[in-house]
């Protein structure tokens, strides 16, 4: 099959299913097919790489030259990017096809995809349920076979939680492994790009394209290029799996616990040994995150002022009025909530009490992991406390929504790599995700651990 035929087959399937799922915000069939023709020429010339000609979807947080790039917001409803994010140019260089831009929570703030200005995404397993978020469009697109694989970003769980809720695999790499250049910033000390796909093997191939040093991102790490597929087939004999007692306590649904425990039993059969560990400060990760992430967001989002690009209110009296009205009309409720919290915790008189305190606890959370990795090679637990919930179920209760990320957030605070792989089904026959957390730069081992189970 040629890349043009493959791309056309995906485009046809998208035309058929996307009106119902709302996984894609923007499609550009002519551009995708032109890329496919170029890929076919490259394949014919014998200059192909692993992903040459493969149709990939891109989360709408990545700037792609000539493509509408909205970040799920009205604020960027008319923003056509004049340049490519590093991740996008890596895929272009590899000869991959950009199939389209996927829906997401507004500015990646959310766990259900319901904060998108472009409407919620539906979970392909049950369209009355959410796909998770913020990379919900990507997760639904992969699960419904509307692309071969896709990109996501993860600030507090936005790759792993939707992967779990849609029954696919997703990897958040170590902070600094994938460049954030051209990836619209939410909370810069936490944001990481990563792949989402059907298998660990696909994620490894995606990582080979996405990872690597880029001098345009000051947090990009200068490391040798790795082949993330290199360890996929290693046996797991002797692997030490740490189970944090805090993850297996109250809060996790009985259905999720059952599926995760069955997966761990499977790992024992594959030769792994189980070690009981503790992450005593992990219970503080949600409150710490909801100080730090809004603080950084309030600063990052100050650039959206209606002056240079994006939404501008049609009627205003003077400059200050234009700023106020553009931001009041351009941002949704959750984004405004974060900006207000962030501005508050950074303000004079409260900085020491909130922001500084949260930074100190963040360090303690990271130290817990360092201690744990003296006893084990990987850590496992649930990705999310429940399977996919109903659309609208948590929409008006931000605290309930924030608790969706209770198992994923500590990983971002520590800068560690984490992934989610499908491990059976729970309540309402919806998929359950197993979370695998690795030590810094241990992505190849995590992919090995995932691949052996799959
Ligand atoms: N759900 C979390 C939030 O709303 C995490 C989002 C993310 O990882 N981008 O902030």
Overview of this protein structure:
By secondary structure, this protein is an alpha/beta fold. It has a domain at 3-210: Amidase signature (AS) domain (Amidase signature (AS) enzymes, Alpha-Beta Complex), CATH 3.90.1300. It is built from 14 helices and eleven strands. It has helices at 3-21, 29-44, 86-94, 136-143, 160-166, 200-210, 254-269, 285-300, 319-330, 333-346, 352-372, 398-402, 409-414, 443-453, and strands at 24-27, 55-59, 97-102, 149-154, 169-172, 192-197, 240-244, 273-277, 378-382, 418-425, 431-438. Helix 6 packs antiparallel against helix 14 (443-453) and helix 8 crosses helix 11 (352-372). The radius of gyration is 21 Å and the shape is globular. Glutamine (GLN) binds next to loops. Residues 108-111, 134, 154-158, 186, 293, 405 line the site of glutamine. Its EC number is 6.3.5.7. It is an enzyme of class 6 (ligase). One of its GO terms (molecular function) is ATP binding. One of its GO terms (cellular component) is glutamyl-tRNA(Gln) amidotransferase complex.
């Amino acid at each position: 099959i040629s890349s043009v035929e493959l791309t056309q087959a995906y485009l046809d399937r998208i035309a058929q299913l996307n009106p119902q799922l709302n996984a894609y915000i923007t499609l550009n069939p002519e551009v995708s097919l032109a890329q496919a023709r170029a890929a076919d020429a490259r394949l014919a010339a014998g200059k192909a790489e692993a992903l040459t000609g493969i149709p990939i979807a891109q989360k709408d947080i990545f700037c792609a030259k000539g493509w509408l790039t909205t970040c799920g917001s009205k604020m960027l409803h008319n923003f056509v990017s004049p340049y490519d994010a590093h991740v996008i140019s890596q895929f272009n260089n590899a000869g991959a096809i950009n199939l389209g831009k996927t829906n997401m929570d507004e500015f990646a703030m959310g766990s259900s995809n319901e904060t998108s200005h472009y409407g919620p995404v539906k979970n392909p397993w049950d369209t009355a349920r959410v796909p998770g978020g913020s990379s919900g469009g990507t997760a639904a697109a992969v699960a419904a076979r509307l692309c071969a694989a896709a990109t996501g970003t993860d600030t507090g769980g936005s790759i792993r939680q939707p992967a779990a809720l849609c029954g696919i695999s997703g990897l958040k790499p170590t902070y600094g492994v994938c460049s954030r250049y051209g990836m619209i910033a939410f909370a810069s000390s936490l944001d990481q790009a990563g792949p989402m796909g059907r298998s660990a093997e696909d994620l490894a191939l995606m990582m080979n394209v996405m990872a690597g040093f880029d001098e345009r991102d000051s947090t990009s790490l200068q490391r040798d290029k790795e082949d993330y597929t290199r360890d996929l087939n290693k046996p797991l004999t002797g692997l030490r799996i740490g189970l944090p007692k805090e993850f297996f306590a109250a809060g996790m649904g009985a259905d999720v616990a059952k599926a995760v425990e069955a997966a761990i039993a499977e790992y024992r059969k594959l030769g792994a040994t189980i070690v009981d560990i503790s992450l005593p400060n992990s219970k503080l990760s949600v409150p710490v995150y909801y100080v730090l992430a809004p603080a950084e967001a309030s600063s990052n989002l100050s650039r959206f002022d209606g002056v240079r690009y994006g939404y501008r209110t049609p009627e205003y009296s003077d400059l200050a009025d234009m700023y106020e009205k553009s931001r009041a009309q351009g941002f949704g409720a959750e984004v405004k909530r974060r900006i207000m919290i962030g501005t508050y915790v950074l303000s004079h008189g409260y900085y020491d009490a909130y922001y500084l305190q949260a930074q100190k606890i963040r360090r303690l959370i990271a130290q817990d992991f360092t201690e744990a990795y003296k006893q084990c090679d990987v850590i496992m637990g649930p990705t999310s406390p429940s399977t996919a919930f109903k659309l609208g179920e948590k929409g008006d209760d931000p605290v309930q929504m924030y608790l969706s990320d209770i198992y994923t957030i500590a990983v971002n605070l520590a800068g560690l790599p984490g992934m989610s792989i499908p491990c059976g089904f729970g309540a309402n026959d919806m998929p359950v995700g197993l979370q695998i957390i690795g030590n810094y730069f241990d992505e190849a081992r995590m992919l090995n651990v995932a691949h052996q189970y799959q």
